[in-house]
Amino acid sequence: MIWLDVDKPTKLCTLHTAGSCAYWQKKRETQLKGLGKLKYEGGWLNFVSAEQAMLYFQSNFPEYKFIDHC
Ligand SMILES: [Zn+2]
Asked: DSSP for 1-70?
């Protein structure tokens, strides 16, 4: 599973593809960030491929910075 961490306060989209990644494992729903959906400060969205996540980033958050984390 590919996860894209959309963080609105820092304007970062971080791509996580490794199940062994600490961030991947710690992802969870919080009051301000969603899991599988966006909330006030963003959220974690899942995709079937890194290409799809990249396309989503390019069309929805073009002004954000993209980080390929793992
Ligand atoms: Zn990662």
From this structure: -EEEEEETTTTEEEEE--TT-HHHHH----SSSEESS-BTTEEEEEESSHHHHHHHHHHH-TTSEEEE--
> What pLDDT score does 43 carry?
98
Distance CA 27, CA 55 (A): 22
Å from CA of 20 to ligand 1 middle = 8
Using the mean position of ligand 1's atoms as its centre, give its distance from the Cα of residue 6 in Å: 13
pTM of the model: 0.95
Q: How far apart are CA 16 and CA 3, in angstroms?
A: 5
